[in-house]
Sugar phosphate nucleotidyltransferase
Amino acid sequence: MTEAVLLVGGKGTRLRPLTVNTPKPMVPAAGVPFLAHQLARLKSAGVDHVVLATSYLAEVFEPYFGDGSALGLRLTYVTEAEPLGTGGAIRSAADALTSAPAEPVLVLNGDILTGLDIAHLVERHEAARAAVTLHLTRVEDPRAFGLVPTDETGRVLAFTEKPTSPAEIVTDQINAGCYVFRREVIDAIPTGRPVSVERETFPGLLADGAHLQGVVDRTYWLDLGRPDAFVQASADLVRGVVASAAMPGEPGPYLVLPGAKVAAGAKLGGGTVVGAGAEVAEGAVVEGSVLLDGARVADGAWIGDSLVGAGARIGARTVVDGAVVGDGARVGADNELRKGVRVWCDTRLPDASVRFSADC
């Protein structure tokens, strides 16, 4: 069976305040930690051993997932005391692998939701006899990503990490954050210093004449690095736009977890999740949003495309549109939060005190 390394050590800075108390892969999407969806996909692809390369809030992972036996997997936890980049994290996981030098090892970023056929990617890697095979996808605006042009056979020609000028945009193919490494390539990554596979390892392999293969796949793909993308991913999982065996229920317009209370006159839709112990009052509307465990939405409030943190409170008639409310925050009645506003954990906003967006 193919082994896998999941890179779950990042601080999730772009997702704050969601990640103040919770590492990014453990933030709930469609009712379970996002990491659960990735592990389920690996299991379905035939993977039986996963090494979790952790760093930030590393102590959170093992108490939840244990040894992985409940998932039909064997999980090993490796923790970096000091973050050493993507390459350093992959190299730190090497000692926990059991694959032979020429065997394939999957490596996945911990913040990507995709419908990629992982088993097929491994097959393509082995057929090409590549040192590394990369999942590539196409996007309309590639400026925020690493560009990976290929020839007509799929062989990688170059790497341009986050282009800074129009002349550097030579393709719309981007690095989609899922790789198959030959095990011996992982073992050759330097130890004891920061290493970026995107900026150092992959370009170095190309310079040495190694065969790097790109596989372009146009199935569902989403980078969950921003709050709006994370909320969209959760909604897409709930609605069945992308399938996951980890979903705690059937696909539908909303997901209400056990222990939640939704008043008869409340309206839910758009892939909304109402977490365990959360409450939605009479006349409230929650559309395409995530209410984490214990959150409460008062009567007449309107929540759209937003994330409301664990134990947070939204007052009567308050509008939260495209915003994030951190864990334990209290937003009073008759407020209006729009367009990227982030309310920090445990913040208190009095009634009718805020009517602005992040654009103001």
Q: What stands out?
A: DSSP finds seven helices and 31 strands in the chain. The radius of gyration is 21 Å. Helices lie at 34-44, 61-65, 85-93, 118-128, 183-187, 197-207, 227-239. The longest strand covers residues 173-182.
